[in-house]
Amino acid sequence: MNRLYLIPSDIGSDPMKVIPAATLEHIAHIGVFVVENVRSARRFLSAAGLKGHIDGLEFHELSEHTTAAAVEALLPLFGKGDVGLVTEAGLPAVADPGAPLVALCHAHGIPVVPLTGPSSLMLALMASGLNGQEFAFVGYLPAKTAERRAAIKKIEKDSSARRQTQIFIETPYRNDALLEDLVGGLNPGTMLCIAADLTLESETIITLPVSAWRRKAGFKIGKRPCVFLILAK
Amino acid sequence: MNRLYLIPSDIGSDPMKVIPAATLEHIAHIGVFVVENVRSARRFLSAAGLKGHIDGLEFHELSEHTTAAAVEALLPLFGKGDVGLVTEAGLPAVADPGAPLVALCHAHGIPVVPLTGPSSLMLALMASGLNGQEFAFVGYLPAKTAERRAAIKKIEKDSSARRQTQIFIETPYRNDALLEDLVGGLNPGTMLCIAADLTLESETIITLPVSAWRRKAGFKIGKRPCVFLILAK
Predict the structure, then answer these.
(1) Residue B94: which of A17, A111, A125 has the nearest Cβ?
(2) Is the ipTM of this complex over 0.90?
(3) What is the dihedral of CA B24, B27, B29, B30, to 10 degrees?
(4) Which of A29, A83, A233, B104 has its CA 20 to 30 A from that of A116?
């Protein structure tokens, strides 16, 4: 029975350094890939040991805009052999597209094999020092200022009521606007962690109470991939 | 400045297969380890390339029972060199001890470096086909039957209200009792995934609506490490 392999990609560093041997070995035997973006998937697979073999591979695109019918149309691929799912950075189907294809496989009895690789959310959570026994990932906060500020108060309340670390992300060019709203809107005793450029030389991970963030007024994250985490009292 | 390296361990398979090169390289240069259990950490580090060098390493234990004062007493270790944190299986400080040591490092300006390795929670989530855009990890459900059944209804309600995949774990010998309560207590349309023996040959990942689980009455997980996930309508 052919399978769907869920293949994590690097989050900015050398794939040969952060993708383990078992994952690299599976990549090497797969001929058909469903990917978020063909160009970057080719670049990743090439750097992950397939350099020189890319032209013999078959690629199909799947993004968050792919319709249910178009996902269903991928089913015949499993008649050809094993299929690999690769998204833009990190884990397929976690804060990234792919879940509808995985669900389709379950519905048709096609085995799904998740492989190990970097997860920016888990790297950020383990390095935050915040509660790793209970946590929630809430995705992106609203882009509009008033709604974003209301969402910040809501997740702080949830964090406090449930003792959950609340994890969220932002489009990089809005990182510093979000940081400003967090530092301005959260309670002084709430812990706030920012984790930027994970796995890179420029990795920056800072956890401080909001009261201490207020004394770091000049600090900018910049347009770097960043995970935000809060834990309220 | 010496650092705290957060070192994921394998979750049952060969460390050389699931721990990436960057993580193995960091392990090789660290002389002082804070570990959940010395015996199993030695076994892991030996299999992760330190065979023959274990006797020259220094080990200190840290578990969920370690007091705040005992965690604080680990601070002088950072005067000796880099320190590695290793827990029983998977990621330190995520559904495992370690967060108080990480928090102590942040409070003292000691850089924290999270390394890549297997996370049973993320492997289960990506392979579940359930919502990976919003999810919550709620730890262990209560052991007592009545409380556990009430907790199941509560997380189903939360899942429905927040469109969150709810992730939880159980002590392996209670897996099948929990599965029975889930299949009996959840709504027929709620999706239930079990992910057992992740990264092993015997890996079993099944996602079905509760109505279909009810027709699999003979199915047993057994005493295998298992992650449970639900997504309610």
Answers:
(1) A125
(2) yes
(3) 170
(4) B104
